[in-house]
Amino acid sequence: MGKQAIVIGASLAGLCAARVLSDTYDRVTIYERDELPDGPANRTAVPQGRHVHLLMARGAAEFEDLFPGLLDDMVAAGVPMLENRPDCIHFGAAGHVLGTKTTLKREFTAYVPSRPHLEWQIRKRALAIPNVVLVKTSVAEPRYDPARERVTGVLLQAGDESSAVPADLVVDATGRGTRLPVWLEQWGFGRPTEDTVDVGIDYATHQVHIPEGVIKEKVVVAGASHDHPVGLGMLLYEDGNWSVTTFGTGKVPPPQNLAEIYELADTLLPPHISAALRSGEPIGEMAFHKYPTSRWRRYDKMDRFPAGIIPFGDAVVSFNPTYGQGMTMTSIQARNLRAVLEAGEQDLAARLFRATKKTTWPVWTMNAVGDLALHNATAEHVPWWYIRVGKLFDQFLGAAETEADLAEWFLRRFSLLDSLYMVPDARTLGRTIRHNMGALIAEKRRSLRSAPQRDRVSAP
Ligand SMILES: Cc1cc2nc3c(=O)[nH]c(=O)nc-3n(C[C@H](O)[C@H](O)[C@H](O)COP(=O)(O)OP(=O)(O)OC[C@H]3O[C@@H](n4cnc5c(N)ncnc54)[C@H](O)[C@@H]3O)c2cc1C
Fold first, then answer.
1. Of 68, 145, 244, 287, which is least packed with CB atoms within 10 Å of its CB?
2. What is the mean pLDDT of the chain?
């Protein structure tokens, strides 16, 4: 029969895991409980797909590595491609609009597929792999052998032994709602501890058709800030329509109807973009989604873990979605899985947890700093340096409004390209300090010049 792997969940994480496992296992079976459409369409079990999804440039490259030809096919299907075109991106981060030049010194390409389109393209490719099969049914739970302290397969929908399917490895790619912590507790391993940040995010989205050519931008981001806790993202997708997502942070409600979206756009966006939005044709109904908490399940900290099972994708870590990193971080988990499998299957879970901790930590930590310092989030344990670093970063973003090199540095790091660490090097920091000192001195000079005039005017 050969080596068998089972993947629970055929969303982005499950499909990427299946792709990687197909190199090592003779047969990979994916079980999915949801109806999977034949084309790019929203799914009931993936409600977030109705809201704006940014694909980072790093994620595009990682997905292409897993599924060669994917990016060309997406572009052929109409997915916007921005080849070294920062002038097609309006990017406001925490209240600062980045001042990139029209082209970047170090070129990169961004792709703008909708979430359903990307999943469909990846699904087609994953299911075309000869040793990967998809079965439409729900998994009740993994099958656990206490004597060997290992998972030996799964029990399907019925949940009894008659539905047992054996496997050498089970991958839990069931998303944020994973039940693995409960099963681990039942099997005597205890639950993993969790790092959480209560971000209190509330999404509201409307689709709008704006005639081609009215605006040159294809990506419009106006992130929330401390003083303005509601943000907005607008992406032009492959169907020629704009997905317009608004979001409140720190439990602040987003717009509840289109008129309120227009009002928000007037306050956050340049007039030519908000005017284009108002002149567009609304399509369908508003969609809403709540995302209360970012969550990292710390499997890497568990002393004991059963053999034969690994969690994957959002089931391990679910990032604040307003930073647009979840799919890209899943693609990086797939890179980690590939690397640990290539080194053998001994101690697979522990080695994967270590690798994923390494790639998760920098992104998770910088998100938490931003959330707690700039977006009114709360958490149980906040290291003392988070708020200070957050304020320094706010100053960096202020300098990036007019310093093109700093703006480019931020855009590349935000796209998870050069490094997962959002830490400026000494040269970049030096530029920030010089810029901010210059701005401070200019401001002082301006107020000194205007002071005597005020005195003269007010003298009797
Ligand atoms: C509002 C919102 C906006 C987001 N925006 C972005 C963004 O801009 N950019 C970005 O990169 N990421 C974004 N993300 C994150 C992104 O959606 C996820 O990281 C990505 O979908 C990967 O998820 P996943 O495959 O791990 O889980 P999911 O997509 O949640 O899929 C889990 C799958 O498992 C199946 N399943 C569950 N239980 C069972 C079972 N027992 N048996 C069989 N099947 C089962 C489900 O039906 C589903 O298909 C956003 C998330 C949210 C919530």
1. 68
2. 95
CATH 2.60.40.10 fits 4-48+115-193+297-368, yes or no: no
Confidence of residue 453 (pLDDT cuts 50, 70, 90): low
Q: How far is CA 59 from its chain centroid?
A: 9
For tokens 């931008």, the residue is 217
12 CA from centroid of ligand 1 (Å) = 7
Beta carbons of 245 and 52 less than 8 angstroms apart = yes
174 lines ligand 1 (CB under 6 A): yes
Cβ of residue 86 lying under 6 Å from some atom of ligand 1: no
Rounded to whole angstroms, the Cα distance separating 18 from 334 reads 9
Number of residues written out for the chain: 460
The answer to whether the beta carbons of residues 220 and 263 sit under 8 Å apart is no
Neighbours of 133 (CB within 10 A): 13
Kindly list the domain boundaries of the chain, sorted by start residue: 4-48+115-193+297-368
Cβ-based neighbours of 240, under 8 Å, separated by 6 or more: 78, 209, 212
CA of 392 to the centre of ligand 1 (A): 33
Nearest to 120 by CA among 33, 49, 173, 214: 49
CA of 326 relative to ligand 1 center, distance in Å: 9
CB 100, CB 406: distance < 8 Å: no
Residue with tokens 């970047």: 104
Give the pairing type, strands 27-32 and 4-8: parallel
Angstrom distance (rounded) from CA 245 to CA 232 = 6
Residue pLDDT, tens place only, 323-357? 999 999 999 999 999 999 999 999 999 999 999 99
The span from the CA of 54 to the CA of 329, in Å, is: 12
H helix or E strand, kind and range, residue 258: helix 258-268
Residues 392-413: what's their mean pLDDT? 94
Residue 452, pLDDT score: 60
- Give yes or no for residue 66 CB within 6 A of ligand 1: no
Cβ neighbours for 290, distance < 8 A, ≥ 6 positions apart: 201, 202, 203
67 close to 125: Cβ distance less than 8 angstroms: yes
Residue linked to tokens 């908000």: 274
How many Å lie between the centroid of ligand 1 and the Cα of residue 360?
17
Look up residue 302 and give its two tokens. Answer: 């568990």
